[in-house]
# Entry
Amino acid sequence: MAAVVKTRISVVLADDHPVVRDGLAAMVNQQPDMEVVAEAGDGDEAIACYERHRPDVLVLDLRMPKRDGVAVVQRVLEINPKARILIMTTYDGDEDIFQCLSQGAKGYLLKDAPRQEILSAIRAVSEDRPYTSTTVAAKALQRMAKPSLTQRELDVLQLVAEGRSNKDIARRLSITEGTAKTHVKAILTKLDAISRTEAVAVAHKRGLIHL
Amino acid sequence: MAAVVKTRISVVLADDHPVVRDGLAAMVNQQPDMEVVAEAGDGDEAIACYERHRPDVLVLDLRMPKRDGVAVVQRVLEINPKARILIMTTYDGDEDIFQCLSQGAKGYLLKDAPRQEILSAIRAVSEDRPYTSTTVAAKALQRMAKPSLTQRELDVLQLVAEGRSNKDIARRLSITEGTAKTHVKAILTKLDAISRTEAVAVAHKRGLIHL
DNA sequence: CCGCCGCTCCCCCTTAAGATAGAGACTGCC
DNA sequence: GGCAGTCTCTATCTTAAGGGGGAGCGGCGG
# Structure
């Protein structure tokens, strides 16, 4: 023996479903060239696990308790700008994809991906090669052609999505109803919607808001 | 040998995520008293698998391609009214829960449940004992206190959620705008909302609509 | 048979929403 | 300094939405 001493790819899994973690762990640990070194069940744990183990790859679900995926990506890249993060989620709204990739996540794929694709994505990311499935890449490109909403508009949009009236929104944000209307108008224009309800539908589809 | 000849609990898994199926399969097959006999990746396959294998327990995700979980429950119970179905999903809108349980699913739990709970739920259902986690049961009870929407109201609600105006809804359903308004009014009353946008938010939270 | 319910249509009225067209104040960037 | 973008506010006007009624008609079960 004493043959090849090639270190295996170390992986940290972050997902709030034990079932999914088990599935991924089983898949990964079956491979001769990779192993799971830690698992996290929420955003804070994910960050802590990353710091403690400094894995080659962090596999991350976007929707988690305590701190959502985008925030985790941001924080981990602060800790280590060279961190290799693979997003793996069920959600395919183009906003989430765009946010993660533009912040520096190395890969993004959907949970309905077949086993082989998941494994090759982990390998790719571990070698610092970007991996994004074609459908996901297409969405990211779509998103780039669309106008971005300002922070204030996102605040207003969130309240619109909760069913608040312009007057109510104005009160909560300490602005006048007229200003609230101005923001709503801008939102409608940018989302290409003709009513606030349609705007909510569009925004949800794009992942701008999570109801 | 020749000791006890107790047949193991046969399980069919239906979930559109290979990762989740792997996780469940690994968990189940590690138990001495149960085994996975087949897996399905969409609603149609789930029905076919059930018919072919007649498992003791069918573990079913609600959100699947081709045919959604509620429809699968309905169909499987037509095939075998004594079928033992365990719903396992991420969604906790009370409408889905209510629909499945009132149609005859034996158990309902969320994917973020710990391993032990999942396994004991499978065992319970296999013995024809209902299993529903406390949080889920609470939702089902909540739902019972709420007024139901008529089919027509659900049709209108769907269009409202897509951002259609009353006039547009009327055109699509071949009714007058006044009638559309009447339905919308009824929806607002039943959902205890003051605007259509709030109604959409409430309906989505309850699982009445899936955006 | 009658009453309940769901679906349809109608009225009037008030308020909210959206469209249009400005303008001042602040930021950061070139 | 000037320019761009954002956030704020103003005003007016038209249309859509929502509140409160009433009412006819068909099916279904007591």
Summary: The first helix of chain B runs from residue 18 to 30. Chain B has ten helices and six strands. The mean pLDDT of chain B is 93.
